[in-house]
Amino acid sequence: MTPSRCGWDRCRRLASVLAGLLLMASVGSNHSISVWNAQLQTLLGFSEAGISFVCSMASFGAYFSVSPGFVFDRISAHRSVLLGGSLLAAIYIGLYAGLVTFPGAMTPLGVGIAFAVLGQATNFGVFAALGPNEDLFGPENRGKVMALEFAAFSAGGALFAELYKHFFDGKVPLYFRFMGCLMLAVFLVAWITLYRPANDDLTHVITAAPPIHALDEFMPPETSILKSTFDLEDSCQLISTAQPDITGRDILTDSRFWLLFSTVFILVGSSLFVMANIAFIVESLGGPMEQVSTMVALFSVGNCCGRVVAGIISDSMLHRVPRIYFVSLASVLVGAIHTLFLVIPRAYLVVPITLAGIADGVMFAAFPVLTRETFGARHFGKNFGLISVANAVGFPLFYNPIGSFVYSLSAKPVNGVQKCLGDDCFRPVFLLVIALSMVSLVASLKFASRQHYVRLS
């Protein structure tokens, strides 16, 4: 390449990374659902169980990425951007039309299905942001690029929470219309801007985007799913002696898989429960409702900081502290957080909510890398997909039904809407999480005892 062409190509690569950041921030808007879900409940007259079902479907759609991943692998990054943007725009505009035209006909089942599809569609943005960009500046800069993308995803929740608070508070239909137009515009910009290799660029030919799982954004900084065992051993003084590269039946019969699965199920599920119910928790406990949007934003900021800081610290301390102990730390932190919900003055609920975001970030900095280090790199995608099933079922199919049932036991009609006010609305759930966090702690310690390490000089 001539110098001028090299300069132009570098600009294209920088623009592609920026487009990826834009995509990740926009799909990170899923984390702001607690800002407007209570207002959507009032607008449609849903019960707490009904709106919780909607939130669960949104979470399930976003975290269960098997189906969009299957499609993405076959249609390439740029086509998937067009598909994802079209789906998101259509769903948001459809919800806007329904809320304005025939709100009485909108049921929790219908709205829940719409949000499940919406969650699935956001995965196309995640895949497209990561696939074409991860290697644009070489392996030596891959960690920096990925860290930027991860931070944008986490920050998206905080950004859209503040956006809703300042411009759309009490105007859910208008917010959905805005989101439909914004998603279409962002995805079109990404389609134009995402890197397309020149015909003579043999080092970055992307005929189809690499098969990256939607939840790969939770990998900590400076970590790559393509990192070899040799790289791992060179960069760490304490490594697992077992690198078996197992999957399928072998991994499902390995007790370490189920120990790790249980910690993800318990800890990530409890954090998602808090995130999706911030407004209801604050309302029921008599906390400052005017701070809900700020709390949602701080949850996302804490989540982002937890991922980045825990990822860096766990890497730097790996020669002394096995990574599984960061899961143990998250277990203790989650137990303490839910104890705080029971005893803290209601004016300070922002503290446990922010800490819940940090705990979630610590988990997402630890368990993806543990999956790779424990079961090998060859089948990392499949194995991480199996572990991530815990994300898809922990909150939607376990914590949320229990929380809705407990909430409904003490709920009473308030202006035609079932509301629960008082400590009993969520206390049983908090106590359950405290108990389960101890189970998670034991599971992480058992994992550590069954994982053998060797120190390198």
How would you portray this structure in words?
With 457 residues, the chain is mainly alpha-helical. The protein folds into two domains: 1-218, Growth Hormone, Chain: A, CATH 1.20.1250.20; 220-457, MFS general substrate transporter like domains (Growth Hormone, Chain: A, Up-down Bundle). Helix content is 71%, strand content 3%. The strands form two sheets. A two-stranded antiparallel sheet has the order 1-4. Residues 202-237 have low confidence and may be disordered. It is a multi-pass membrane protein. The chain crosses the membrane at residues 50-72, 81-103, 109-130, 150-168, 174-194, 257-282, 294-313, 325-344, 350-371, 383-409, 429-448. Keywords: Membrane, Transmembrane, Transmembrane helix. It is found in: Membrane.
